[in-house]
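Inputs:
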Amino acid sequence: MIDVWEGILQAFRLVYSLDRDLFEIVLLSLYVTLSAVIVASLIGLPLGAWLAVNRFRFRRATIALLNALMGLPPVVVGLIVYILFSRSGPFGVFGLLFTPTAMIIAQVIIITPLIASIAHQAIRDLWAEYHDLLISLTTSKKQRMKTLIWDARRSLLTASLAGFGRAIGEVGAIMIVGGNIDHVTRVLTTAIALETGKGDFALALGLGFILIGLAIAVNMAIHVLSKTERGGQW
Amino acid sequence: MTTILPLVLENVTVRKRDKTILKDISLNFAPVGFTIVMGPNGSGKTTLLRLMHGLERPRGGSVKWSSSEREARPQQAFVFQTPVMMRRSVIDNIAYPQIAHGVSRATSSSKAADWADNVGLAHVKSIEATNLSGGERQKLAIARALINQPELVFLDEPTTNLDGKSTREIEGILQKAFNGGTRIIMTTHDIGQAKRLATDVVFINRGELCEHSPAEEFFGATQSSAARAYLNGDIVE
Ligand SMILES: Nc1ncnc2c1ncn2[C@@H]1O[C@H](COP(=O)(O)OP(=O)(O)OP(=O)(O)O)[C@@H](O)[C@H]1O
Ligand SMILES: [Mg+2]
């Protein structure tokens, strides 16, 4: 029986000792995940808005594809990114394999469909409500998208946070493309996998609690920031 | 005064699914006037206004402005029967048409503040519009419709949810806009209001035009029996 209590103690011990290695791992986790969330949001939010506002031939098929991509197994994404960026792969020349950048790329692929899909739903509902008004005011397509993105900002923040949640806890893809190299690509999830494999359950559990704490802290920080947000142009 | 009027409807028919909602309507809207559109519930008033504004397409007949439809639309505004509250502050809602047409943030904000004042929303101008009461929403929608000084404003039952005082306020604002040269086409079920405001009245029943006459004629000796019954408060069959 693994002692949960021992895990909690271990977590406190790690935090209080200001363990340098832990600090590095936490920072890299945040760096990789937040970068991935920002890039995926920059792609996914406008894509969701665009799909909501535009009528085109393969719209339904595109949305269905997007929803299907949400269920993409991370391990497979990792494998594909690995092949693409391996020395003999098409992007091999960049030498990105086993770097944090490769991990970010993999995570972007995993969470962009999720963010775009949630954004699409939120914006589609708002568009249904705004449709007559925005048509009546002869707004351009670009203006409509800007307006909808701005007015749906709270739902869109939720979309990005869902992406964050998925990315910070992800292990399969970043293990493959990052390689869990100490001081280079080791993040909380891969460290937990490693310690579990070695049988150090207390340490693994300790890292697990820190991971959960981190996820909650980021969510709360963004929540507080969005509350204090002031009105803007769009 | 205006560049887009007169507006001429010729034998317009609107169908939705298999239902004919407007049947063979021909109307002529002069460049100046305060037109009141009346008729029982479901007679097609909202559909008629939306058709003229270009939100519905006619199945047959034509809607002709004196300019192209492309040029005509920006000169019109529409106050919907259920106003759309954008998820932003009251002042930003009122300012939106200005911003959408490229007016600077500073100019549009100060103009919007004036309009918030005009319609009696100054005390709530910073709260999010979705928190407004039904009557306040109507006032916001009217301010938002008038801020760009359109040549023509369509209003779909703008005072239905308002109390007597607010109704008078709104009527005052509309009267002022009308005196300033704005063409107004508005629906209402309030006969007293129609008498106070109308220069001419369009009466429709079951999707058919019963009559379009000057106000004094309509309220004096109306010709159509449906309109007479409606004015008498009888149930129009
Ligand atoms: N999308 C639609 N599909 C089918 N029927 C519709 C549709 N939209 C409107 N109608 C019908 O068209 C008729 C006219 O509707 P409209 O909203 O124009 O009436 P109205 O005169 O504005 O009524 P009210 O006084 O209640 O606002 C109604 O019978 C309505 O049910
Ligand atoms: Mg109506």
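The longest helix of chain A spans residues 100-136. Flag for discussion at group meeting.
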